Amino acid sequence: MYWKTARTPQLRTLPIDETTRDAARLVFDVAQTKLRNLATNHPDYLPIFTDGGHWVHDKEKWTNWGEGFTPGQMWLVYEQTKSPEWKELASHYTELVRGRELDVETHDHGFLIATSFKQQWELTGDEDAKQVAITAGRTLGGRFLESCQMIPSFIAPESTFIDVMRNIGLVFWAALETGDEDLLRRARAHSRTTRRHLVRGDGSAGHEGQWNVETGEFLRMTTHQGWREDSSWNRGLAWSLAGFTECYALDGQPDFLATARLNAEYWMTHTSNDDPVPPNDFLEPDPVRRWESSGAVAAAQGLFHLARYVDDQDEAKAYHERALATFRRLAEPEFLALEPEWEGILKHGSYHERKNLGVDESVEWGEYFFVEFARDLLADWR
Fold it and tell me: CA-CA distance, 103 to 380, in Å (whole number)?
């Protein structure tokens, strides 16, 4: 979500084979069809997951955090096509998210606003959109709790989620864009608190941390979406891997790069080029569902970018090859929804297995990061 404003120099550009580029073009073709159908059949609706392949309108959402992903995909299509139709559609759907930049009850401003308004500014130069994005970064940074040195989740003041790491890039960007040193301090502090308490020594990541807000004492690691409290939720690890990579790209702090590499080592050890899409939790014995695709694509995109920043050439090559292998796998008919009756783009994602919400379905963040990764694969990195 933040690469166009990265400030840390990349060390290398790695080759992308034509087979992978062809897969990326196919993903864009499918995305255009599905997004057009969404706008026609469900006008002004911002979905979050499907049920039997059809966008859900009337089920519990747990938390309202996915609205930015639909306009975000439309901006990605506009970036590829330069079509006035897609610019108009993306602008209209972005306006549906306006107001969430001031929402003090969420920790997902990156997902909501960086995907929509920040992309609008990047692609059109719209200064109002830029100010909305800066406001969102300040709102998220304003949630910072000094006693615990972290940004709380929507659950409670004593809680933070690993998910915040895939949103906090917006705080870094807003701080750097405006020269706000205190906002930058908060972003760095939250990231380091997450590194200390939610990233384990083996590189796996917990979902939620809980604190004593009076004393600042860390109390425990818990989970809402993993198999159990001490296991490794696939998407949480992806948020950490990609998030710390983004933070390093923006801010250049060596410990952020080290954390991303630690996460990458765990991901690489527990997947392979032949089987790059893991289940919902790495440690769950005999999982009922073989795949959780949204975490896989988010992690693969993180590996793709991380490869450009690590010193070791062999390490970079391994990350790059795993990223491309994962994308090609997800672009196969098993995952890419080529059938017209399926309304989403990417199948076999899960929103919340414990609550049985959007399980083995299409989920909007999976859609967004799939299309964004396709954009990255078609970009000119020279």
Answer: 36
Other beta carbons less than 10 A from residue 7's beta carbon? 11
Q: Which of 319, 330, 340, 332 is nearest to 373 (CA)?
A: 330
Calculate the average pLDDT of the chain.
96
Q: Is the pLDDT of residue 194 over 60?
A: yes
Rounded mean pLDDT, 48-71: 88
Q: Are 354 and 224 in contact, with CB atoms under 8 Å apart?
A: yes
pLDDT over 90 percentage in the chain: 95
Calpha distance 151→141 (Å, rounded): 7
> What is the Cβ-side half-sphere exposure of residue 361, based on CA atoms within 13 angstroms?
22
In this structure, are strands 218-222 and 208-211 parallel, antiparallel, or unpaired? antiparallel
Q: Can you give the pLDDT at residue 64?
A: 83
The tokens of 40 are what?
């026609």
When pLDDT is cut at 50, 70 and 90, the band that residue 3 belongs to is confident
d(CA 171, CA 185): 10
What is the rounded distance in angstroms from the CA atom of residue 86 to the CA atom of residue 94? 12
Judge whether residue 59 has pLDDT over 70: no
One-character DSSP codes across 313-350: HHHHHHHHHHHHHHHHHHTSTTTB--STT--SSB-SEE
* pLDDT for res 382: 47
Q: Are 206 and 162 in contact (CB under 8 A)?
A: yes
CB 26: neighbour CB atoms within 10 A? 14
Type of residue at 159 = S
d(CA 7, CA 83): 29
Query: Is residue 61 very low, low, confident or very high in pLDDT (cuts 50, 70, 90)?
Result: low
Q: Are 366 and 55 in contact (CB under 8 A)?
A: no
Query: Residue 150 phi/psi, 5° resolution?
Result: -155, 165
Collect all residues with Cβ–Cβ distance below 8 Å to 72 and sequence separation of at least 6. 1, 115, 116, 119, 368, 372
Q: What is the mean pLDDT of residues 34-39?
A: 98
